[in-house]
Amino acid sequence: MPRPYQCTVSDERTEKASVLYCKTNADTVEKAYSCNRCMKGFLYPMELHVHMNIHTSKYSCSECGRCCRSTNDLARHRRSHSGEKPFECTVCCKRFTTSSEVIVHRRIHSGEKPYKCQLCDAAFSASGDLNKHMRIHTGDKPYKCHMCDRAFNRSGHLNGHMRFHATHRPYKCYVCDMVFSQPRGLSQHLKVHRPQNPHKCGECDRAFVDSRTLGRHMRVHTGDKPYECLTCSKRFTQCGTLQRHIRSVHTNTKPPPFQEISQ
Question: What is the CATH number of domain 225-263?
Answer without folding.
Answer: 3.30.160
